[in-house]
Amino acid sequence: MRKYDFDPELEGLLKSLKNHPALGGDFDFQKSWPDVANTCGLSEDTSDMTHTWRDWLEFYIWDLTHVMLKPIGAVAFSVVLLVGGWFGIANASLGTLPGDQLYPVKLGMERVQMTLTTSSAQKAQLRMEFTSRRLEEMVALAASGKPSDISQIAMAVDRVKQDVADIKSDLTTETPSQVAELAKAVGRKADVYTSTVTSSASTLPLNVQTQVKEMKTIINETKDQAVEVIVTAHEQAVTAENTHELDLAFQKAFTHASSIATPEEQKKLITATALQKAGIYRRAFQVLKEIEMAHAVTE
Questions:
Q1: Transmembrane stretches, by residue range (predicted)?
Q2: What does pTM read for this prediction?
Q3: All structural domains of the chain with their residue ranges
């Protein structure tokens, strides 16, 4: 061990002060306790100040638990920071677009939501909501006008097309309850999808126009499939909810058919309305579809 040299005068001074009252020298507990007791409002009698085995047990238990809780508290604090940070990142990712650094986090959170959701209605709503997000991303990228986004736009269009194709597939493969809820969700959203794609088509790059046409075709096919599911459910069990959903779908289809129908096709519109009022929904939709198909080439 290294030996340090001290100033003899300083060393002598420290030794002379070691017992100074200001530094606690010559402290006498018995003599000092009354002053401390009076100042703090405690008893001056110290005769019963003994510790029982219970006091010692409680002290050791307290000491042991505090020693154990320190690392546990540190871990818990770390978990809070981790979870809080993750939710912060997840929230920050909500407004991201394809190509952004946090965009994969956004997609990952959507997959987690779908995995954790058990309700058929909620799953259907989530599917439609996520597909709506893909459409919004496609429109936002197209509106940006950045050359670097062209490849991302193509990917966004393809992702929307794939999402709609998956929904169409689910309408034929899921359980009856899930299919019914998904079909209703599609009925509410399909026209919005078509409108969004149609209005944004002119701003999309030429190299994705073919994909856009395919997307519109898949959306229309998915809409028809959803109507078929609801019609079948209505034929199996006539309920107020199914009837309401069919009436909404019929009004949308009727509005579209009316906008393109020729004077000669007005009779078909009247026929479709009569069939709908009679509750013969399948034939009513078929009549409207005939009008639509007659104009499919020229639209």
A1: 72-94
A2: 0.63
A3: 71-116, 119-236, 238-299
